[in-house]
Design brief:
The chain is mostly helical and about 325 residues long. The protein is about 75% helix and about 0% strand.
Length: about 325
């Protein structure tokens, strides 16, 4: 078991290094430091002296990959790639273009993002699986047909409709919760309940249909017919056998959501004015603050790979054969 986990972790490092190198190429080779200086200064007639001063202040005045002017190991270490990209591996995110500490911003903003994402993930997963099992239990009936129609309708409507409609109906007309904003402590509940509810409802369509497909595939297998032949009830067959044997694809789907638990929901946080990592990224893109965007891309990659490792480990708990084959 330990060797299996170590192998999976070691596999992650080359992937993360490749993502880091690709991100560096996109940010610095396509968009040169001179271009970044011009966008940040935002003046029509910018002198080269002003550009050079901005680059020196922000640490972009060095060579990209290889510093010919340095000696020895400094040829590699005194470069933009080492200082701006490789430093991310030790979670040294540096400073934003406006001087803020990115690491401190992430520590502060991750909690509002988690407050939204964790309830959406847990409650949404339970609702989707329960609804899917209900449709499978009443498969080939009007209940199943009606459930599929509801899922298709939910999937066909843009998430922006749920956000704007929820704000107008629940926030403005009924005045049950604030339309937008955020507060610390227990007062945050009234600001989070509406975006969490919208996140759960908007995900029912795709999630329930996918789980329904998994469960329908399982109920047609031989072991299910054997369980029924032994006299087990349909409810027990679904929950004890079908759900258990569908756990691997369920875990695979769940890992996609893990990065969003920390990274936040871009659309929800922006529309509801919640100071999480999602709105933090959107604001950085609008301000063309490449230091923040680069840090968030790297952090998202780390979290996604971490989620894949956790999924591989959870596979061994659900099906020990995975450990032997891996």
């Amino acid at each position: 078991m330990f060797a299996y986990i170590v192998r999976r972790i070691l596999y992650a490092f080359p992937i993360l290094l490749g993502v880091n190198a690709l991100t560096f190429a996109l940010f610095f080779m396509v968009n040169t430091p001179d271009d970044m200086a011009r966008m940040q200064l935002g003046e029509k007639h910018i002198t080269q002296a002003a550009i050079d001063n901005w680059k020196q202040t922000k640490g972009y005045d060095k060579a990209l990959l290889w510093n010919d002017e340095a000696e020895g190991l400094a040829k590699v270490t005194e470069t933009i790639f080492t200082e701006k990209s490789l430093s991310l591996f030790v979670f040294n995110f540096g400073q934003a273009d406006d001087g803020r500490d990115i690491g401190q911003d992430i520590k502060t903003r991750m909690w509002p993002s988690l407050a939204i994402a964790i309830p959406i993930f847990i409650v949404g997963l339970l609702v989707n699986i329960t609804f899917a099992l209900l449709m499978v239990f009443f498969r080939a009936t009007y209940v199943d047909l009606g459930g599929v129609v509801i899922c298709v309708v939910i999937m066909s409507i843009s998430s922006l409709f749920y956000i704007i409609g929820g704000q107008f109906l629940v926030g403005k007309l009924m005045q049950l919760v604030p339309i937008s904003g955020y507060s610390e402590g227990l007062n945050a509940f009234k600001f989070l309940i509406l975006p969490v509810a919208i996140g759960i409802v908007s995900g029912i369509g795709a999630g329930s249909r996918w789980y329904r497909t998994l469960f329908l595939e399982e109920v047609s297998k031989d072991y299910v017919r054997t369980a029924r032949a032994k006299g087990l009830s349909e409810v027990r067959v679904l929950f004890k056998h079908v759900l258990k044997n569908a756990m691997i694809p369920i875990l695979t789907g769940a890992v996609v959501v893990i990065p969003t638990l920390f990274m936040g929901s871009l659309i929800l946080e922006s529309f509801f004015g919640i100071p999480g990592l999602g709105s933090y990224t959107i604001d950085a893109i609008q301000a063309q603050d490449f230091a923040i965007v680069r840090a968030m891309v790297f952090l998202g990659s780390v979290l996604y790979i971490f989620g894949l490792v956790l999924t591989d480990i959870s596979y061994t708990l659900v099906d020990p054969r995975v450990r032997l084959d891996g």
